[in-house]
Design goal:
cell membrane; globular; mainly alpha; transmembrane helix; transport
């Protein structure tokens, strides 16, 4: 496992080295593609200024993400156990998820004004759909035979849902969390570029208008780092909670 991690880290370093060499060898303008060294220097120099915006974007993203998870789990549970809810809600959810969220942000701004609320709502609206789909799929894949046995033993529908259905959806749930957190960042930053005076999205928009491309890429690096960190956190929790559903690497076929 340590060798695999070393290879992964080496490939990441190689990617940045190749990027640096490409810019140096081709004489690439900073206005087109800055070198990684320039981006990291800019990030280090401007970090005290960027820190409040990082906190703002992270807080907005997490707030919208938590609300999206709560809504997604509730809707997914309803859709997964009710055929009527599936036939009624699923087409509406697909239609809503197909709407570009950049078209929804102005509506949120019209309703709630510019600032944090539209960013939270945009993050929520863009991240809850994967959770709904995965929760509903996990519940729908519960074996009918198992449900029949539990009903014969006197279990109610709620007992089956709480003690069997939801635990069996945990692998689906954590898979959707790792996707949804990335979507939540996209939604929050999208709203910040349109209707906010704080956050990484606003910093990137301002830097772009001032042709400060290294600062734009510094914002991208920050977002990528936050996304990877949260992905790693959810992967760690997933391994603790759903280790029974994970294929072990030490199992060797004979």
């Amino acid at each position: 496992m340590s060798r695999q991690k070393a290879w992964s880290a080496g490939l990441i370093v190689l990617f940045f080295v190749a990027w640096e060499l490409f810019c140096l060898m081709t004489g690439m303008s900073d206005l087109v593609l800055p070198r990684p060294s320039q981006v990291f220097v800019t990030l280090f120099q401007r970090f005290p200024v960027l820190w409040p915006h990082i906190v703002q974007t992270l807080a907005t993203t997490m707030f919208g993400f938590v609300l999206g998870v709560a809504l997604g789990v509730a809707l997914g549970a309803i859709i997964g156990v009710s055929r009527t809810a599936y036939d009624t809600c699923y087409p509406l959810l697909i239609g809503f998820s197909s709407i570009p969220k950049v078209a929804v942000v102005p509506i949120f701004v019209l309703w709630f004004g510019s600032g944090t609320v539209p960013a939270v709502l945009t993050a929520l609206s863009i991240c809850f759909f994967p959770i709904v789909v995965n929760i509903a799929t996990g519940l729908a894949t519960t074996e009918p035979e198992l449900e029949d046995v539990l009903k014969a033993l006197g279990a109610s529908k709620f007992d089956i849902l709480w003690n069997v259905g939801l635990p069996r959806t945990m692998p689906f749930f954590f898979a959707s969390l790792k996707v949804a957190i990335s979507y939540a960042f996209v939604g929050a930053v999208l709203s910040e570029t349109v209707a906010s005076n704080r956050g990484i999205g606003n910093v990137m928009m301002t830097a772009s208008s001032n042709f400060n491309v290294p600062l734009v890429f510094a914002g991208l690096f920050v977002l990528a780092g936050l996304g990877v960190a949260l992905y790693a956190v959810f992967s760690l929790i997933e391994g603790r909670v759903t280790g029974w559903a994970t294929r072990k690497n030490d199992v060797i076929a004979t």
